[in-house]
Amino acid sequence: MAYIEFKEKQGGMGMAVQIFAHRGYSGRAMENSLTAFRMAKEAKVDGVELDVHLTLDREVVVIHDERLDRTTTGTGWIGQLSYDQISQHSLLTLPNETVPKLSDVLELFFDTSIVVNIELKNQYIRYPQLAEEVVNLVEYYGMQQRVIVSSFYHPCLIELKKYRPSWNIAFLLDCALYEPWKYAKSLDIHQLHLHYTAIDQQLYSACKNNGVVIRAYTVNEEKEMFRLASIGIEAMITNYPGRLRRVIDHIDMEC
Q1: For residue 1, what pLDDT is reported?
Q2: Catalytic member of 53, 64, 195, 250
């Protein structure tokens, strides 16, 4: 299998828990901003998670919502605006920054070992060329082995799997699906990103025994960090990487 391997852990849990910064270090800076991604890089996280949409002129931009309204000083639908139009507006709490391009973020992490989880935000607006443009950018930077592509819209991931079978592709699920490892494996997908509340020891063990890697999102409370780390979860996506690292270090000290 081609999916990203996890570091061996010294001691109790058998695997190191990978720390993914959700939309960058979003607990300290505006989500999906270059500042948040720089903070994540400085925090030496294992990975970052980000969201992408496609502009009217086919630029891949890093922003969570389909519209500018919540996180920028602008308004309007991403898909109906050019990148130049979007760039006229600053991020809401970072007046010197605008919505970054995916290429900006890939350049930031190009010379590191940090994994970049790119979530295609196409479950509501399909953006027919979004996956194609993401593939072009990732391959331009030669980062195929350090990128995970995920989405709640699974048909596009199945298509991506057909022409990039070695890529790291993960189904995002927002519900407690019955035996999700069977669903994933039936479609030749071996990675799942699950809401932390859907994960317990039984589900984790079944996924592991069936060769399916699971990553938990979005884990911000210490109690849940500790629970999932104790289960043996491979990776957690969090707004607070520093907090998660302290929890993991505490567990390591006790092992």
Answers
A1: 46
A2: 64
From the list 240, 236, 191, 243, the residue with the least C-alpha distance to 217 is: 236
Mean pLDDT of successive 10-residue stretches along the chain, which has 255 residues: 54 68 98 98 98 98 98 98 98 98 98 98 95 98 98 98 97 94 98 97 97 98 97 97 95 74
pTM, full prediction: 0.95
What pLDDT score was predicted for residue 7?
Answer: 55
Q: Which domain holds residue 245?
A: 18-254
Catalytic residue among 22, 53, 154, 190: 22
And the tokens for 102? 């995916």
Residue 4 belongs to a domain: no
Q: Is 250 a catalytic residue?
A: no
In the prediction, which pLDDT does 14 show? 42
Question: What is the per-residue DSSP string for the chain?
Answer: --SPPPPB-SSTTSBPPEEEEETTTTTTS-TT-HHHHHHHHHTT-SEEEEEEEE-TT--EEE-SSSBSTTTBS--SBGGGS-HHHHHTS-BTTBTT--PPBHHHHHHHHTTS--EEEEEE--SSS--TTHHHHHHHHHHHTT-GGGEEEEES-HHHHHHHHHH-TTSEEEEEESS--SSHHHHHHHTT--EEEEEGGG--HHHHHHHHHTT-EEEEE---SHHHHHHHHHHT-SEEEES-HHHHHHHHHHHHHH-
Q: The domain spanning residue 115 has which CATH number?
A: 3.20.20.190
CA trace torsion 143, 244, 157, 188 (10° rounding): 100
How many domains does the chain contain in total?
Answer: 1
Active site residue 64: yes
